[in-house]
Design goal:
Layout: E1 8-16, E2 31-40, E3 47-52, E4 62-65, E5 72-74, E6 80-83, E7 88-97, E8 102-111, E9 129-134, H1 141-150, E10 153-156, H2 162-165, H3 175-186, E11 190-198, H4 204-207, H5 213-230, E12 235-242, H6 256-261, H7 265-276, E13 281-286, H8 293-308, E14 314-322, H9 328-340, E15 344-353, H10 365-383, E16 390-395, H11 404-409, H12 426-435
Parallel strand pairs: 9-10, 9-16, 10-11, 11-12, 12-13, 13-14, 14-15, 15-16
Antiparallel strand pairs: 1-2, 2-3, 3-6, 4-5, 4-7, 7-8
The structure holds ligand 9MR.
């Protein structure tokens, strides 16, 4: 385990302001309190973030020096980031130009070079991208450090779904979607759009649409066209329809889209997306398609129908799996079906439960190792796919405590690659080991 340092230092100097300018009456009542905090990144220990926590300095100039007598960096609103280029002890100084005299506070930080850090996931392969599900409020701070260091593909975990982007008829809300897309673009990441049509993220006004069937279809065409056009050239790929097959019956779900637009609603939606951006890659995405043979057959039937009209580029197999199940040959079966059709394979939504039987209440080393082995198996299997059919593996959440699975199953689990302290788990090593052979 690489050595990690996390420091939070608060330095405080309080004086009372007095003016040296006789024209301005001295304000002896407002205390100036000069302080700052320093955070040394866990992901890159050469990177520090300083935050000016002073009070009573409104209107006063303040600046940083990140080494003793080093160059001056003006203090701007919000935290400042500084990257050292070598290990060492450094004196950080904050200077506030107070009316009477400058006030300086300093603190020494120790930073240790990044050599001991584990390699980044995205650097372990150039054959496919490594994706992470994000939420717009989980892209800063340590989330951001890890996102930028480790991942080169983003999927919005929920904010690019219809219920969020199209809350009422005629009124789109792209606030969160834009924030995620802009973040990905600024950090040279691919963006996987997820998902245009999903029965579980349909706004009420669409479920209860009062117009005619033709008006419904026109509305869906407008929605798909509006969204896909907005992100054309930026979003690399879209899940157009998500989870259309019903468990058990393996028939089309009787969603509002099917009842309003007919059994061919799927190909209509893919056609709308194709028309809006002929270059964006179109995926069909679903769960349990590795081991449920009937569901897999039903999905490949949909895929074949779309492929015959050149409306699909890839298949997303949601990887909500556990340490025991499904087997590698079951996973291989969906890969084989996808490759045989000349399509791209997305291992989407990867999380690996270690407590599916709810028989442990805290994480054990044995289960962590089992998870490491399962992740290694899955990634090795993915890496063996012909390059032309590779696309991305997307992990469904960063920290164990942020997973959707805990609420969903109502029991403890630790299914992701980072623990709640933002530390890489053994499962993270398993991912890297698969690509280092
Ligand atoms: O993990 C997602 C959760 O945060 C959202 O609240 C939820 C509804 O938007 O969707 C979850 O992600 C789902 C994904 O979009 C499709 N496959 C199943 C995932 C878990 O429900």
């Amino acid at each position: 385990m690489p050595k990690r340092i996390y420091m939070l230092l608060v330095i405080l100097t309080t004086i009372f302001a007095c003016s040296k300018d006789n024209d301005t009456p001295p304000d002896t009542t407002t205390p100036i309190s000069v302080s700052f905090e320093v955070i040394v990144s866990q992901q890159n220990t050469l990177r520090v973030t300083v935050n000016n926590t002073s009070t009573g300095i409104s209107g006063l100039n303040s600046y940083w020096q990140f080494t003793k007598n080093g160059s001056v960096v003006q203090d701007e609103a919000g935290p400042e980031m500084h990257l050292y280029d070598a290990s060492g002890e450094y004196l950080i100084t904050l200077t506030v130009e107070a009316p009477d005299d400058d006030i300086q506070v300093s603190e020494t930080v120790m930073v240790i070079g990044g050599d001991s850090m584990h390699p980044a996931l995205k650097d372990a392969t150039d054959k496919f991208s490594v994706g992470m599900a994000v939420q717009s409020n989980r892209m800063g701070g340590q989330h951001g450090e890890i996102l930028v260091r480790e991942f080169n593909n983003l999927t919005a975990e929920y904010e690019m779904k219809m219920n969020i982007m199209y809350p009422s008829q005629g009124n789109y809300d792209f606030t969160a979607a834009d924030a995620i897309v802009n973040y990905g673009v600024a950090n040279n990441m691919d963006i996987h759009g997820h998902t245009l049509i999903w029965h579980n993220a349909t706004p009420d006004w669409v479920e209860n649409f009062t117009g005619t069937d033709q008006e419904f279809e026109d509305m869906i065409e407008d929605y798909i066209t509006t969204v896909v056009t907005r992100y054309a050239g930026v979003v690399r790929s879209w899940d157009v329809v998500n989870e259309a097959i019903e468990d058990g019956s393996n028939q089309l779900r009787n969603s509002v889209f099917r009842t309003r637009m007919g059994d061919d609603y799927i190909s209509k939606c893919y056609q709308f997306a194709r028309n809006a951006d002929p270059d964006v890659l179109l995926f069909y995405n679903d769960y349990n398609i590795t081991f449920d043979e009937g569901k897999q057959a039903a999905i490949f039937a949909i895929v074949d129908g779309l492929a015959s009209q050149n409306l699909i580029d890839g298949v997303g197999a949601q990887m909500h799996i556990d340490i025991y199940f499904p087997s590698s040959s079951q996973i291989q079966s969906v890969v084989d079906g996808t490759v045989a059709r000349g399509l791209k394979m997305h291992f989407a939504e990867l999380d690996v439960r270690i407590n599916p039987s709810n028989d442990i209440s805290s994480l054990t080393e044995e289960r962590e190792i089992a998870q490491q082995n399962k992740v290694r198996e899955v990634v090795e299997l993915y890496d063996a796919i012909p390059d032309a059919n590779k696309f991305a593996i997307t992990i469904w959440g960063m920290r164990d405590n942020e997973t959707w699975l805990i609420d969903f199953w109502g029991q403890p689990d630790w299914p992701l690659l980072y623990n709640s302290n933002f530390e890489a788990k053994k499962a993270h090593s398993g991912f890297l080991e698969a690509l280092n052979n």
